[in-house]
C-alpha cells in the first residue's frame, strides 16, 4: 500500500493452489512493491476467494512489460474466440 | 550507540504479547527488550505494507539488541491470521488500513511502553515504506513521542484524487502539528517518495520551524535496508542505521545500561 494504486473487480472462475482447486470470486490488481519479483515495483495480481481463508489466493507479481504482454494475450485469445479464429499462436516463435 | 565489549553480559527476551489497540480492542504485538531493570528508552515499530513479517521481527530484536524496549504491534490484526503476505493481500484488496485505526493502535503501544517499570519515560517511533508515512502521521497526531524515524515513507504528499475515507488528509498537511524531532532517510532513485516530494516536505518542516534531519542517498531507491529484496544497498543501509542509532540516542537518552 505504498503507492495506493489498487483496482478491484469481481470475477467468476477457479484457481488451483497447494490444496487443489477452489472457486475464485475477486481479483485485485495493484502496482506496488513486490515480495519476490526482482523489481522496485510490479503489477501485483491477487485472485482470491472472499468466502474462504486468506490462503485461498492465487498471487502473481509481473514486471510492467510482462503485465502488458499478458493483457494482450488474454484479449487476443478472447477476440480470436469471438471471431472463431485458428488455433494456438505463440508470439515467441513467430 | 551500542558499545560492545567481549566481556559484557548480553541478554534479551522476545515474544508475542497482547496489547491494547484502538477503540478498546486488543491486538497482538511482537515485543523485545534487553534483560535487566533498565531504565531503557522505548521504540514503537510500525510494520510495512508487505505485512507483519520476519523483517519486522528481526528489526524489533535489533532495537532490543541496541538497548531499547521495542514493540511492533500487528496493525493488520483485524484482518485475520495467516501467512503475513496473505494477510497483506487481504489488506490490499480492502484498500488499506484506515489512518485513524493506525494512529489509535500506535498511541496505545506508546502507553504500553511508558507503563513498563523498565522504561526511562522516552519513546520513539520507527517505520519504513507505508509505515514511514504512518510514523510521520502518528508523530503529528499523537502527543508523547520523543523522536520519529521515517524511512522512505511515500504518499506524504497526496493529490485531492488520492484522498479517501480511509486516508482523508495528506500527512504533509499535518506538519505544523509534528510533536517531536524527525529523522528521514530517503533514496534518490525512489519513485515514492520522489526527491521532489521529499523537498516539498522539507520546505513544510522549515516553514513551521520543526526539528528534523533528512538524508537523501544517491544510488539508492526504495527500501534500501531490506537485505532480502532487490532494493538493498549496503553502503546507504549501514550509514542509515548508524544515523538511526545516533538520532535516537540523542533524543531518547542513553542505551548504555543494557
Descriptive account of the structure:
The complex is a heterodimer of chains A (94) and B (258). Chain A has 94 residues and is α+β, with helices and mostly antiparallel strands. Chain A has one domain (6-85). Chain A has 1 helix and 4 strands; from the N terminus they run E-E-E-E-H. Chain A has a 4-stranded antiparallel sheet with strand order 1-2-3-4. The longest helix of chain A is centred in the last third of the chain and has 19 residues, at 64-82. Chain A is globular and about 40 Å long. The mean pLDDT of chain A is 86. Chain B is of the alpha/beta class. Chain B has a single domain (12-252), classed as Rossmann fold, CATH 3.40.50.1820. Chain B has helices at residues 54-65, 84-93, 99-115, 130-141, 195-207, 234-252, and strands at 12-20, 26-34, 40-46, 69-73, 119-128, 147-151, 182-187, 212-217. Chain B has an 8-stranded mixed sheet, sandwiched between helices. In chain B, helix 3 (99-115) crosses helix 4 (130-141). The A-B interface holds A 1-4, 6, 8, 26, 28, 30, 32-33, 35, 38-41, 44, 46, 48, 53-55, 57, 59 and B 48-50, 79-80, 82-83, 85-87, 89-93, 95-97, 129-130, 154-155, 162, 167, 191-192, 221-223, 229-231.
Structural class of the helices, strands and pairings of chain B?
Answer: alpha/beta
Strand share of the residues of chain B? 15-25%
Topology of chain B as a string of helices (H) and strands (E): EEEHEHHEHEEHEH
What kind of sheet is the major sheet of chain B?
8 strands, mixed
Which term fits the overall shape of chain A? globular
Number of strands of chain B: 8
Question: Given the C-alpha coordinates, what overall shape of chain B results?
Answer: globular
Structural class of chain A: alpha+beta
Taking all Cα atoms into account, the compactness measure Rg of chain A is 15 Å
* Helix proportion range of chain A: 10-25%
Give me the side-by-side strand order of the main sheet of chain A.
Answer: 1-2-3-4
* CATH T-level fold name of chain B: Rossmann fold
The radius of gyration computed from the alpha-carbon positions of chain B, rounded to a whole number of angstroms, is 17 Å
Work out the count of structural domains of chain A.
Answer: 1
Multimer state = heterodimer
Report the major sheet of chain A.
4 strands, antiparallel
What percent of residues of chain B adopt helix (DSSP H or I)? 25-40%
CATH class assignment of chain B: Alpha Beta
Q: Write out the strand line-up for the largest beta sheet of chain B, numbering strands in chain order.
A: 1-2-4-3-5-6-7-8
End-to-end C-alpha gap of chain A: 39 Å
Amino acid at each position: 500500500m505504498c503507492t495506493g494504486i489498487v483496482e478491484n473487480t469481481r470475477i467468476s472462475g477457479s484457481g488451483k493452489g497447494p490444496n487443489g482447486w477452489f472457486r475464485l470470486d475477486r481479483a485485485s490488481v495493484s502496482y506496488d512493491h513486490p515480495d519476490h519479483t526482482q523489481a522496485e515495483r510490479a503489477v501485483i495480481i491477487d485472485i482470491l476467494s472472499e468466502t474462504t481463508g486468506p490462503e485461498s489466493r492465487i498471487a502473481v507479481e509481473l514486471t510492467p512489460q510482462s503485465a502488458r504482454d499478458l493483457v494482450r494475450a488474454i484479449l487476443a485469445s478472447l477476440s480470436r474466440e469471438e471471431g472463431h479464429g485458428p488455433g494456438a499462436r505463440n508470439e515467441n516463435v513467430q | 550507540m551500542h558499545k560492545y565489549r567481549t566481556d559484557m553480559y548480553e541478554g534479551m527476551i522476545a515474544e508475542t504479547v497482547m496489547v491494547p489497540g484502538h477503540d478498546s480492542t486488543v491486538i497482538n504485538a511482537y515485543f523485545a527488550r534487553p534483560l535487566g531493570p533498565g531504565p531503557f528508552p522505548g521504540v514503537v515499530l510500525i510494520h510495512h505494507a508487505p505485512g507483519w513479517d520476519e523483517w519486522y521481527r528481526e528489526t524489533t530484536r535489533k532495537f532490543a539488541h541496541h538497548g531499547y524496549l521495542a514493540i511492533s504491534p500487528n496493525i493488520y490484526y483485524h484482518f485475520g491470521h495467516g501467512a503475513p503476505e496473505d494477510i497483506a493481500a487481504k489488506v490490499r484488496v480492502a484498500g488499506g488500513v484506515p489512518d485513524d485505526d493506525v494512529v489509535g493502535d500506535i498511541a496505545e503501544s506508546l502507553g504500553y511502553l511508558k507503563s513498563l517499570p523498565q522504561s526511562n519515560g522516552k519513546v520513539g517511533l520507527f517505520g519504513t515504506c507505508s509505515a514511514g508515512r504512518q510514523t510521520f502521521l502518528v508523530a503529528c497526531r499523537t502527543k508523547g513521542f520523543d523522536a520519529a524515524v521515517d524511512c522512505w515513507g511515500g504518499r506524504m504528499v497526496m493529490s485531492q484524487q488520492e484522498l479517501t475515507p480511509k486516508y482523508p488528509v495528506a500527512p504533509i498537511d499535518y506538519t505544523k502539528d509534528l510533536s517531536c524531532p524527525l529523522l528521514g532517510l530517503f533514496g534518490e532513485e525512489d519513485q515514492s517518495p520522489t526527491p521532489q516530494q521529499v523537498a516539498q516536505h522539507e520546505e513544510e518542516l522549515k516553514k513551521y520551524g520543526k526539528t528534523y534531519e533528512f538524508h537523501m542517498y544517491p544510488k539508492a531507491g526504495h527500501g534500501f535496508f531490506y537485505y532480502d529484496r532487490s532494493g538493498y544497498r549496503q553502503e546507504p543501509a549501514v550509514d542509515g542505521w548508524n544515523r538511526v542509532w545516533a538520532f535516537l540516542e540523542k533524543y531518547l537518552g542513553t542505551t548504555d545500561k543494557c
